[in-house]
Amino acid sequence: MSTTLILGAQWGDEGKGKIVDLLCSDFDIVARFQGGANAGHTIVCGGKKIILHLIPSGILHDTIQCIIGNGVVIDPFALLDEMEMLQRHNIEVAGKLMISENAHLILPYHQIIDNEREASKQYTTIGTTGRGIGPAYTDKIARIGIKAADIYNEQKLREKIIAQADEKNKLLKFIHNSPKAITSDTVDIFVAACQKLLPYITDTTYYLNNAIAAGKRVMLEGAQGSLLDIDFGTYPFVTSSNPTAGGACTGTGIPPNKISRIIGITKAYCTRVGNGPFPTEQANNVGDIMSQKGHEFGSTTGRARRCGWLDLVALKYSAMINGITEIALTKLDVLDEFDEIRVATKYIVDGNQADKFPTYMDERHIEVEYTTLNGWKTALNGINNFNALPLQTKEYIGFIENFMGIGVSMISTSPERNDTIIR
Question: In the annotation, is 231 catalytic?
Answer without folding.
Answer: no
